[in-house]
Amino acid sequence: MMEKTIKLSFKVPTKLSDLTLGQLQRFRQVTDQVGEKSQESEDFIKLKALEIFCGLELKESYKLPLSTFDSLVENINKVLAEPTPLVHRFTFRGTNGVEVEFGMQPRINEIPLGEFGDLDEYMKDFSFAHRAMAVLFRPIINSYKDMYEIEEYESSDKYADYMLHMPANVALGAMVFFYLLGMKLSNHTILYSLQQMSPEERLQAESRFLEQNGVGINQFTLSLEEISSNLMKLRNFQSISV
Question: 116 and 96 in contact (C-beta within 8 Å)?
Fold first, then answer.
């Protein structure tokens, strides 16, 4: 009897920039909605992780060989463990092939009151992260070397849907930066130093500030460690029906 060959199509992210902010929001929603921890809830999270990050439907995940499943899990963990240095500019390519470059508010220390009010409000809930990014990032209208000017701010409505598709590393880097800025790091020398740090030095600095204040990054500034901790359960997966 001939074995039946099963062909599945899915994406394998190799770096954090392969993921989008919208995917992180979807996964966070899943983990938030799961109630009391049980084997059943943990299995559900495992399957949803592969669905969200790799594009595998739940029924398809059950057809994966165990070795493939473990490999995907390991890959996702490595991707989510990447450091998130601040990225000031990124490019969107539309379905028509046209590229639009977005830039972070270049005068973040002098951000207008209206923008700051919206940003502060959206920072309270990770489900509004795309709206916060629509305040921080807008299309670049003039650029010269490292200097640039972005569109005037109208409202988060204008680009919020675009930000669902922005690279996850850019979004998380901006979130952590704003968090540190909110920790009263208003001294220009300190801010400049943070921007010049290596990823490892920056992570150490973030940890020190968290320890000094006795808190973790708030709900909005979803840390990679928090996401990864949910996925670490995958490594303990013992068996899958195939």
Answer: no
Beta-sheet strand order (sheet of 89-93)? 89-93, 99-104, 137-144, 147-150
**173 burial level (CB within 10 Å; 0-12, 13-18, 19+):** buried
Q: How far is Cα 156 from Cα 162, in angstroms, rounded to an integer?
A: 10
Q: Are 125 and 66 in contact (CB under 8 A)?
A: no
**What stretches of the chain show up as alpha helix (H) in DSSP?**
21-33, 39-54, 58-61, 66-80, 113-122, 129-136, 160-163, 168-182, 188-196, 199-213, 224-231
Bridge partners, 32 (sequence order): none
Question: Is residue 152 a contact partner of residue 122, using CB atoms and an 8 Å limit?
Answer: no
Q: Which residue has the tokens 């997966």?
A: 237
Residue-wise pLDDT for 175-227, tens only, equals 877 766 665 444 444 455 556 666 666 666 655 544 443 333 233 334 445 54
Amino acid at 226: E
Question: What is the distance between the alpha carbons of residues 176 and 211, in angstroms, rounded to a whole number?
Answer: 15
28 closest CA partner among 175, 214, 237:
175
Q: CA neighbours within 13 Å on the CB side: how many for 106?
A: 16
In the block, residue with structure tokens 């629509």: 134
The SS3 call for residue 193 is helix
| Residue 145 zone, left/alpha/beta (φ > 0; ψ -120 to 50; rest) | left
Give per-residue pLDDT as tens, 90-136.
Answer: 998 876 778 899 999 998 777 888 888 888 888 878 889 999 999 99
Q: Is 102 helix (H, G, I), strand (E, B) or coil?
A: strand
